[in-house]
Write a structure and sequence with these properties.
Number of strands: 0
Oligomer: single chain
Radius of gyration: 21 Å
CATH architecture: Orthogonal Bundle
Number of domains: 1
Distance between the termini: 37 Å
Structural class: mainly alpha
CATH superfamily: ABC transporter involved in vitamin B12 uptake, BtuC
Order of helices and strands: HHHHHHHHHHHHHH
Shape: globular
Helix content: over 70%
Length: about 350
């Protein structure tokens, strides 16, 4: 009986979330400037025909974008969950350690200067590669610092300072850049899941899937860490190694999303809290798969709104996620103040 009380509610919630994400996927595939009937779309899905005009749109434009938004939302949600556990702070997101700022800095060097002329053979993927380089260089610096700093608050402050430093250099580059270059850079900064190719989706799913599996395998140590480092050590958990993996997985997941879609705000901050409210638990064995599905569903909804709200003009996804995430943050702050 106790087993049923503990596990049946999460099971029903997982069923609900799966139905939600499948519904979001259907809407993302069926809605757009080019109209398709339900029957035609089903035929294209089952036959996998991409030779016709509608088939090309479905399989080479809408489907990669859908998968990118679902995977991106899942990765940011898990990244945010890991950092909130690490810092024991509910108002922490995946870009707090300067990962987004590092990616933005390297992209600004490519987009706002003439250095890109020396990499014309990489032109189709230059922005993605530069963002990935910046994100992982910042991650490497954070990992080196984390190995020497034991206090999470000190690491948090260092991450914030790195973010400010990268932002300062980016601002200087913008001051001297041409107007057309600035426009393209600003649009990238606002974030979008448009333009993803199947090659990028395969990399995103394979590497990210491995990181998600590694995160789930850390569920028990993460539960121990939530009860305090002293308790976790008494359970035989290697705190130093666990902290290393938390930062590695969090930075890697958020860095991949930033590289492909640009900075996407609030998803990693708000989704973990929504997961805790929906499942009424802090058990990471339930929360990690829960926020994966919830993050994918919410981000795909936000991407659909960004694409369809003022069609044919597309709104940057960070504008939509800000309207979604900011009220959640305000609610959490007010809730904490009332509890004091």
């Amino acid at each position: 009986m106790n087993w049923q009380r503990r596990f049946v509610p999460p099971l029903w919630m997982f069923v609900f979330l799966l139905i939600l994400i499948l519904s979001c996927a259907w809407l993302n595939l069926s809605l757009g400037s080019v109209k398709m009937s339900q029957r035609e779309m089903l035929e294209l899905l089952f036959t996998r025909d991409s030779t016709s005009s509608h088939g090309f749109i479905l399989w080479n434009i809408r489907m990669p974008r859908l998968l990118a938004s679902v995977l991106g939302g899942a990765y940011l949600a898990v990244s945010g969950l890991l950092l909130q556990i690490f810092f024991r702070n509910p108002i922490v997101g995946p870009f707090i350690l300067g990962i987004s700022s590092g990616a933005t800095l390297v992209v600004s060097v490519i987009m706002l200067t003439s250095i890109s002329l020396g990499f014309t053979y990489l032109a189709p993927y230059l922005t993605t590669l530069s963002a990935l380089t910046g994100a992982y260089l910042t991650m490497a610096i954070v990992l080196i610092i984390a190995s020497r700093v034991k206090d999470p608050i000190t690491l948090l402050i260092i991450g914030l300072m790195m973010g400010y430093l990268c932002h300062g250099v980016t601002s200087i580059l913008m001051a001297f850049a041409e107007q057309e270059r600035i426009k393209g850079f600003v649009l990238w900064q606002l974030g979008s899941f448009a333009g993803f190719k199947w090659t990028e989706i395969k990399i995103l799913s394979s590497v990210g899937g491995t990181l998600l599996l590694g995160t789930y395998l850390l569920s028990k140590p993460l539960n121990g860490l939530m009860l305090g480092e002293a308790y976790a050590s008494s359970m035989g958990i290697n705190i130093r190694l666990l902290r290393f993996f938390i930062i590695l997985f969090s930075c890697a997941l958020s860095g991949m999303v930033t590289a492909g879609a640009g900075p996407v705000a609030f998803v990693g901050l708000a989704i973990p809290h929504m997961g805790r409210l929906l499942f009424s638990t802090s058990d990471n064995k339930i929360l990690i798969p829960g926020v994966i599905i919830l993050g994918g569903a919410v981000t795909s909804i936000c991407d659909l709104i960004a694409r369809m709200a003022f069609s044919p003009v597309e709104i940057p996804i960070s504008a939509i996620t800000a309207f979604f995430g900011a009220p959640v943050v305000i609610f959490l702050i007010m809730r904490r103040r009332m509890a004091i």
